[in-house]
Amino acid sequence: MDHKPRVLAFAGSARIDSYNSKLVKVAAEGVRGAGGEVTVVDLGDFPLPLFDQDLEAAEGLPDNARKLKEIMLKHDGLLIAAPEYNSSITPLLKNTIDWVSRPSDGEKALAAYEGKVAAIMSASPGGLGGLRGLVHLRSILSNIGVLVIPDQVALGKAHEAFGPDGNLVDEKRRASVEGLGKSVAKLLHWNRCPEPFPSQLSSADCRPFEKVG
């Protein structure tokens, strides 16, 4: 029985050389280090029209919204790096959340989000690191059925934080961001393999998570 956590990671930016795209990849390494599996996607590969319920009624769910939803349904957790735009999240991220939230093919509402565990983070050249946008993102996700872990990272002076390899130069910062991924994996492990183990499971089924500290 395979109980590895499957985590989907993405940034709310399609900008080339995005700080937030780099940041979420660091967090993804934390999941891998804990024995989990990560899929990193670029929202720029899934262009969507502005959410419009009349368009949805006339043409149905856009193909890219359907594709993203199918990917999300196959994962247990989320890592989301959210750039801050005017004290909130980006139009790209909000539009993506809205389209993927729509039910289709007999699904119940919010099927792609219900029961997910998520960690959120942000990076910005500014001193607050995108913190104000995370307040909004946490509220949105919590209200659509996602369990957002308390820990988060808002990385300030992002233009100085990353090396040529895309990783964080400061080891403490890197450990903090990787810790978000580890925390998601740990919570998914606890949820899937509680102790005492149910009769149909054994401790051997949970060995992929022994690295989680």
Summed up, what is this model?
The chain is of the alpha/beta class and 213 residues long. It is built from six helices and eight strands; from the N terminus they run E-H-E-H-H-E-E-E-H-E-H-E-E-H. It has helices spanning 19-33, 53-59, 63-73, 91-100, 131-143, 171-192; strands at 6-11, 37-40, 77-81, 84-85, 88-89, 117-123, 147-148, 153-155.
Walk me through what this model shows:
- By secondary structure, the protein is an alpha/beta fold.
- It has a single domain, classed as Rossmann fold (3-Layer(aba) Sandwich), CATH 3.40.50.
- Helices cover 37% and strands 15% of the residues.
- The protein contains six helices and eight strands; from the N terminus they run E-H-E-H-H-E-E-E-H-E-H-E-E-H.
- Strands 1, 2, 3, 6, 7 and 8 form a six-stranded parallel beta sheet that branches. Strands 4-5 form a two-stranded antiparallel ribbon.
- Helix 5 (131-143) links the parallel strand 6 and strand 7.
- Helix 1 (19-33) crosses helix 6 (171-192).
- It is globular, with a radius of gyration of 17 Å.
Q: Topology of this structure?
A:
Elements (H helix, E strand, L loop, with lengths): L5 E6 L7 H15 L3 E4 L12 H7 L3 H11 L3 E5 L2 E2 L2 E2 L1 H10 L16 E7 L7 H13 L3 E2 L4 E3 L15 H22 L21
Parallel strand pairs: 1-2, 1-3, 3-6, 6-7, 6-8
Antiparallel strand pairs: 4-5
What labels would you give this structure?
single chain, two-stranded antiparallel ribbon, globular
CATH level-4 homologous superfamily? Flavodoxin domain
Radius of gyration from the alpha-carbon trace, in angstroms: 17 Å
pLDDT average, as an integer? 89
Q: CATH architecture, please?
A: 3-Layer(aba) Sandwich
- Total helices: the number is 6
What string gives the helices and strands in order?
EHEHHEEEHEHEEH
Can you tell me the CATH topology? Rossmann fold
Overall outline = globular
Strand content: 5-15%
**Number of E strands:** 8
For the sheet with most strands, the description reads:
6 strands, parallel
Q: What distance lies between the first and last C-alpha atoms, to the nearest angstrom?
A: 22 Å
CATH class: Alpha Beta
Number of domains: 1
Q: Structural class, judged by helices and strands?
A: alpha/beta
Summarize the amount of helix as a percent range: 25-40%
Runs with pLDDT <50, length 5+? Answer: 196-205, 207-213
